[in-house]
Design a protein that fits this description.
The complex is a heterodimer.
Chain A (H helix, E strand, L loop, with lengths): L2 H18 L16 H9 L2 H17 L3 H21 L7 H17 L6 H21 L7 H23 L5 H23 L3
Helix pairs in contact in A: 2-7, 3-4, 3-5, 3-7, 3-8, 4-6, 5-6, 5-8
Chain B lengths: L17 H12 L1 H16 L2 H20 L11 H17 L5 H18 L7 H28 L3 H30 L1
Helix pairs in contact in B: 1-2, 1-6, 2-4, 2-5, 2-6, 3-5, 3-6, 4-5, 4-7
Classes of the chains: A mainly alpha, B mainly alpha.
Keywords (chain A): Membrane, Transmembrane, Transmembrane helix
Protein name (chain A): Urease accessory protein
């Protein structure tokens, strides 16, 4: 790891530490009230269906290579935010939980099969599922909480889950690692199937 | 480190911290201010050295003017929406990877500076304490933007530029969600 990468890692840790600070209470609590970064950060982490789908996005990005490896983690939060807006304004979106579980199945299978569609198609698949994930977050976004911190918390958590996927997926440069990553894809698809069928 | 931070009470209400540090920490502990300053720092840095030379003094001047005019404002408006909007536009430009014209960068720096200055208006009891608090807020805000701009300016390698764009996309997503929530709250 070069010095620049240490600086970048340090900056990221510092950024997250600063964001972990509870909100300032000077403004009466109406605008910087309870909730905040930690609540938003934990929200995607406490939903196993969200977690496996986010990790699958990172894993698939590695298989697809550049530029998908960074396009997908940029596309996902942006489209997820759009989905969040749909959730807040209560745009009818059928079977949100089914869509989230299906995202784990489809993305898991894409990793397991090492599928390499064109970038636009991969972005379309990931973006479509991001709508469902964002919708669930947006619909559950607490109005009374510190909304800026909450939103930033769950966006950052989502991004870090992608990074976890990318980190694990980087094992794919070795044959045994590639097998492990594809096996992870199988497990994600099975877990998604369990959520989809209501077993889990 | 994750567990250590405690609830921060700005405007001199941070127990045992005093007016200076309360002001200094204000831009770091108020999420909307932090978001706007991070976004404007990234934008200024990614727009090049000339934009830094113009944008940082404009931001500092606007912040100073807003902080100085705080005593004249009887009831400071909530600037969170303005801060989120400034963060959204700035971060969206960085996410696209485009280099904004200097006048756009300057305008956004001015909006962000004014919004942060009004939002962080000192509420100290004495005039000296208010001055100390305001000066510290100015120092903290400008230092944060300068550091982020310097990091953005130095981001020359491919992975560094990508990292900048990913961070900016996170800011865009957060700002969109916040603004949507405000819109929904106001219509209900």
């Amino acid at each position: 790891m070069t010095f620049d990468k240490y600086v970048a890692a340090g900056a990221m840790i510092g950024f997250l530490t600063v964001m972990a600070v509870e909100p300032a209470l000077a403004h009466t609590g109406a605008d910087h009230g309870a909730g905040g970064f930690a609540t938003g950060f934990l929200h995607p982490l406490l939903g196993p269906d969200h977690v496996i789908a986010m990790i699958a996005v990172g894993l698939w990005g590695v298989f697809l290579g550049a530029p998908a490896i960074w396009v997908l983690p940029i596309v996902f939060p942006l489209v997820m935010a759009l989905g969040g807006v749909f959730g807040m304004i209560e745009v009818p979106l059928p079977s949100v939980e089914t869509g989230i579980a299906l995202s784990a199945v489809v993305l898991g299978l894409c990793v397991a099969l090492a599928a390499k569609p064109p970038l636009w198609m991969a972005a379309l698949i990931v973006g479509a599922f991001a709508i469902f994930h964002g919708y669930a977050h947006g619909a559950e976004m607490p109005v009374a909480s510190d909304a800026v911190s909450y939103a930033l918390g769950f966006v950052v958590a989502t991004g870090l889950l992608h990074l976890c996927g990318i980190g694990f997926g980087s094992l794919a440069r070795w044959p045994a690692g590639k097998l492990a990553v594809r096996a992870a894809g199988v497990l994600i698809a099975i877990a998604g199937g369990a959520f989809l069928s209501g077993i889990a | 480190m994750w567990l250590a931070p405690q609830g921060a009470h700005a405007h001199g209400a941070i127990e045992g911290v005093g007016d200076f540090y309360a002001g200094l920490l204000h831009p770091f502990v108020v999420p909307a201010e932090l978001l706007a300053l991070l976004a404007i720092g990234l934008l200024i840095g990614r727009s090049g050295l000339a934009a830094c030379r113009l944008g940082i003094p404009i931001l500092a001047g606007a912040m100073a003017a807003a902080l100085a005019s705080a005593p004249a404002i009887t009831e400071a408006p909530d600037m969170t929406i303005a801060l989120a909007a400034a963060a959204l536009v700035s971060a969206a430009i960085v996410t696209t990877g485009l280099r904004a014209p200097r006048w756009i960068t300057a305008c956004l720096a001015m909006v962000a500076g004014l919004a942060v200055g009004i939002d962080a208006a000192p509420e100290a009891n004495s005039r000296f304490a208010a001055l100390l608090n305001g000066a510290a807020t100015l120092l903290g805000g400008v230092a944060l933007v300068t550091i982020i701009a310097a990091l953005g300016l130095r981001a020359e390698k491919h992975w560094q530029r990508i990292g900048t764009q990913v961070a900016a996309s996170w800011i865009v997503a957060s700002a969109v969600l916040y603004l949507a929530l405000q819109l929904v709250s106001s219509t209900r």
